[in-house]
Amino acid sequence: MTPTLSIVVTGRNDGYGGDFNGRLLRTLAFNHDRLTERGVPHEIVLVEWAPPADRPQLGALVRESLPNLGSALTAYLVDPRYQEACSLNPKLSYLEFLAKNVGIRRAKGRAVLVTNTDIYLGRGVVDAMASGVIDPRTVYRATRVDVKLGADESHVHWDLLEDARNHTTYKTIQPPLYAGGSGDFILVERDSLHALRGFNEVYRLARVGIDVNFLVKAYSSGYHIADIGSPVYHTSHVGSFRTTKNVASAETAEAAWGRRGWPSRQVIYDNTDAWGLRDAPERRVDAQTTWLDFSWDAVPPLVDLRRLVLPAARVGQATLSAESV
Amino acid sequence: MGLLHSLLGAVGLASAGQARTLMKRVDAADQRTAELKRAVADAREETARWKAKAGELTERVGKAEQAAERLPKVERELQQVKARDDKHVAQLAEVRDRMLRAEKAAALSQEHLTATEAKLDVVEAAIGVLDRRTRKPL
Q1: Is A259 in CB contact (< 8 Å) with chain B?
Q2: DSSP symbol at A125
């Protein structure tokens, strides 16, 4: 049965941001339970990009800790050599959006939600998904509310998330792009997302701004961008972009987010047909886990300058201003 | 009475009644004379006013005639000014148009420059990657 929704997340068992695994497990459990309660058939596509060889795989940890996920979880393990082969920035330690493209490419749901492992879906978001109204050629965005949940995050529920006293920041999203925490919530009908060929795989020097860059591409491709009308909730953690972007050392910042200040709102991309490591040889590890072997055939060209292009203006669309990320 | 009047008249006298009547007629004539004098004075004043007005009007007519004589020249000058103005408006529109085109060209150039910078980033990064890959086996 084709799921209504695929949730694409990426991560690896490296303790990113402190207690990465705990955040992943809590949000996966919460989102799975809420979607299940509302009868939304869904799959969770977990992409482990360059997983460390000396630690347990996240997929196995999730299955062990959250047995009720059952067959809803699909894990892709991406050979670590892709990180080095694909990277144009040796300081950037994690090509997050190439990893997400791996999941998007292989997602089976009618709609694909690309999100992060520290995001709780809001009540209205789940309602919208339950209604099944996901228009093609529309990118749905949601406001991200940062919440402080205290030391104990084991019993998260909507009442707690919706309580304004727990909110730390609340950045509203504005047309035309509805940017702001974009990587935390991008929901698109699958075929429409595939037509856009996922996130930028040409400018592989940065991690920050790639999500906004996707919105610019979608917008200039004539897609409608809309606020889904309800927030998602993000738990602040050590090393998150929002909390450390102004205090991290240059080296730490480059390792975490890559080149900053690149023209993510002015220059877009045209990925090759093989985006999302299409040509990576797949090896089935178990019923829910697939390993993507390394092959140079799957690695996008080191340089493909024709694929960095200017966004087009469209009739009836507001002109994008050159705002910084 | 008639005889008495005749007798008095024969010696050059008049009766008291006749004298009173005559006095009344003299008073009336004096009054009429005074009125006529006032009327004549008023008429003179009026005439002076009209004269002044006529002088004024004559002066204005003169000025108007002078202005009318200058009118064709002024009209010609006006036409010249208008023509110059039209020319300036057209020049302004052209300058504005050229500025808009220049602005668009500058914006497009800026966009291409930004894209080129991004491409240079990629080229530079790729050279770095290749450099590292080349050095590694050695």
Answers
A1: yes
A2: H
CATH topology of domain A5-309: Spore Coat Polysaccharide Biosynthesis Protein SpsA; Chain A (3.90.550)
Q: Please, are residues A233 and A167 in contact by the beta-carbon 8 Å criterion?
A: no
| A55: amino acid identity, one letter | R
User: Is A166 in the B-facing interface, judged by CB distances under 8 Å?
Assistant: no
Judge: A263–B114 Cβ closer than 8 Å, yes or no: yes
CA-based nearest residue to A141, from A181, A168, A105, A169: A181
Residue-by-residue pLDDT tens, chain A, 325 positions: 789 999 999 999 987 777 889 999 999 999 999 999 999 999 999 999 999 999 999 999 999 999 999 899 999 999 999 999 999 999 998 999 999 999 999 999 999 999 999 999 999 999 999 998 899 999 999 999 999 867 567 788 999 999 998 888 777 899 999 999 889 999 999 999 999 999 999 999 999 999 999 999 999 999 999 999 999 999 876 666 666 666 566 777 777 777 888 999 999 999 999 999 999 999 999 999 999 999 999 999 999 999 999 998 877 778 776 553 3
**What does the domain layout of chain A look like in residue ranges?**
5-309
Flag if B122 and A305 touch (Cβ within 8 Å).
Answer: yes
DSSP character at residue A127: H
